[in-house]
Design brief:
- The chain has about 400 residues and is mainly alpha-helical.
- Helices cover about 80% and strands about 0% of the residues.
- It has 16 helices and no strands.
- It starts with 11 loop residues before the first helix and ends with a helix.
- The relative contact order is 0.18.
C-alpha cells in the first residue's frame, strides 16, 4: 500500500487550497466530487494509489454521512494527520456553506431564488462526462476478475431498479467475500479465517474509537459552549436535530428530504413545505455537498446563529466516523476475507457511480445541445485528459450562451 500512513505531512495550506478549489467547482453530487478527487489525488498528484482510493470509496459508502465530504476528510488525514483531517474537510465544505448562506440571505430578504438554470444547462452534461470518465478509470482497477465484473453488473442493475444503495452495497460485498474466498484453495480452515478477519477488524475499531473519542468530544464541547446562550434551548434543539441527521443519514438526497420533512416541517413546524423544497433546490444547485442545505435552513429559521449551528451539527459526525475508520482500512487488507469483501465493495461502489451516470443521462440529455456538450466533454477527457475544472467552467459558459440564443 502506498501513502497510507497519515504522516506524509503535506502542507496544510496546500490541502486547503486544493479542497477549496474542489468545493467551488464541485457541481453534480457525490459521484462527480469523487471523480474530481480521483483525478486530483490519484492521476495528477499521485498522493495515493488508485487501489487505495477505491478502498476508501468503498469504506466510505458503508458509513453514514456525505460520501464526498468524507473522502475529502480521509485524504486530509492521510496527508497530514488530524490537522489535515480538519483542514481538508472544512475547506471542502466551506465554499458550499458560504454560497448557500448568501442564497439564504437573498431568499429571506427578497422572498425568492435567483435564476441560475441557464448555467446548469451546460454544467450538467459536463459533469456527466466527468463522472463517466472516472468510472472508466476506477472500473479498470476495481474489476480484477470475472466474478467482480458480474457483481458490478448486478449492483448496477439493482440500483437502476431503485433498490436501496446501502443494502445493495453490503449484499455485493458479502456475496463477493464468499464467492472469491470459497474458490478451490488450501490452507487455514474456513472458520478460523473468518474469525481472524472479524477479530482483526473489531480490535482495530475499538482501538481507534478510544483514540478518536477524546478529540471529538472536545470539539463538540467547544461547539456547545460557543453557540449556547443568546438563543437558548431552541437553538440547542436545532443543533441536536441536525446532529442526529448527520449521524444516521445513508443514501441519496431523497433520504435527506424525508428526514427534514418529518422533523422540521411536521414535528417542529419550523419550516413550511415550500421553504424545505427551496432549501433542497439550493443544496442541489450549489457546488459541494448537498447537506449544505442545512445552512440554508438554519439561516431561514434563526439567522446566522442557526446557520452556524445547523452546519456544524450535520457535518460533525462525518469527521468522527472518518477518524475512526481511516486507520482500519489498511488492516482490512491484511485479512484475505476482509480483503475480498473490500474488493467486492469497491466494484459495487463503481457500479453505483455507473448507475448515477445512467440516471443523470436520462434527465440531462434531453436535447441535442446537451448531448453535444456531454459528447464534447467526454471526447476532450479521453483525448487530452483536461482538468475537470475547465470542463465544468466551459459547460457553464456554453449553457449561458445557449440561453442567450434562446435554446434554454
Amino acid at each position: 500500500m502506498v501513502n497510507s500512513d497519515p504522516k506524509t505531512n503535506t502542507p496544510l495550506e496546500e490541502l486547503a487550497g486544493l479542497f477549496l478549489k474542489l468545493g467551488v467547482i464541485g457541481f453534480g453530487g457525490p459521484a462527480a466530487h469523487i471523480a474530481m478527487m480521483e483525478e486530483e489525488m490519484v492521476r495528477r498528484r499521485k498522493w495515493i494509489t488508485r487501489e487505495y482510493f477505491l478502498d476508501l470509496v468503498g469504506a466510505t459508502n458503508l458509513i453514514p454521512g456525505p460520501n464526498s465530504t468524507e473522502m475529502a476528510i480521509h485524504i486530509g488525514y492521510i496527508r497530514a494527520g488530524w490537522s489535515g483531517l480538519a483542514v481538508a474537510g472544512i475547506s471542502f465544505i466551506l465554499p458550499a456553506v458560504l454560497i448557500t448562506a448568501a442564497f439564504a440571505w437573498a431568499y429571506v430578504k427578497f422572498g425568492s431564488l435567483p435564476n441560475i438554470i441557464p448555467f446548469f444547462y451546460g454544467i450538467k452534461p459536463a459533469v456527466l462526462a466527468v463522472i463517466f470518465f472516472a468510472v472508466w478509470r476506477l472500473g479498470r482497477t476495481a474489476v480484477k476478475s470475472w466474478q467482480l465484473l458480474v457483481i458490478g453488473l448486478f449492483v448496477t442493475l439493482a440500483s437502476l431498479l431503485k433498490i436501496n444503495e446501502v443494502a445493495v452495497l453490503l449484499l455485493g460485498g458479502v456475496i463477493g467475500m464468499f464467492w472469491l474466498r470459497l474458490l478451490p484453495r488450501r490452507g487455514t480452515p474456513l472458520v478460523l479465517e473468518i474469525t481472524a478477519g472479524i477479530s482483526t477488524a473489531i480490535s482495530a475499531i475499538l482501538h481507534h474509537v478510544r483514540m478518536s473519542w477524546g478529540s471529538v468530544t472536545g470539539t463538540a464541547a467547544m461547539v456547545a459552549v460557543g453557540f449556547s446562550g443568546p438563543i437558548g434551548f431552541s437553538l440547542l434543539k436545532l443543533g441536536l436535530f441536525f446532529l442526529k441527521v448527520g449521524a444516521v443519514l445513508f443514501g441519496s438526497g431523497y433520504v435527506l428530504v424525508a428526514f427534514l420533512e418529518g422533523g422540521l416541517v411536521h414535528d417542529y413546524g419550523w419550516l413550511s413545505q415550500q421553504q424545505l423544497l427551496d432549501a433542497i433546490a439550493i443544496g442541489q444547485f450549489t457546488p459541494g455537498p448537498v447537506l449544505s442545505a442545512a445552512t440554508f435552513i438554519g439561516y431561514v429559521i434563526s439567522g446566522i446563529p442557526g446557520a452556524v449551528v445547523s452546519t456544524v451539527a450535520i457535518f460533525l459526525p462525518s469527521f468522527f466516523f472518518v477518524g475512526v475508520l481511516n486507520p482500519i482500512v489498511p488492516r482490512l487488507r491484511r485479512s484475505r476475507w476482509t480483503s475480498a469483501f473490500l474488493d467486492a465493495v469497491n466494484v459495487s461502489s463503481v457500479a453505483l457511480m455507473l448507475a448515477v451516470v445512467v440516471k443523470l443521462g436520462q434527465t440531462t440529455l434531453t436535447g441535442f445541445p446537451a448531448g453535444l456538450i456531454a459528447a464534447a466533454a467526454l471526447g476532450i477527457s479521453f483525448r487530452w485528459k483536461v482538468n475537470a475544472t475547465w470542463l465544468i467552467l466551459g459547460g457553464a459558459a456554453v449553457g449561458w450562451v445557449l440561453s442567450r440564443l434562446g435554446y434554454v
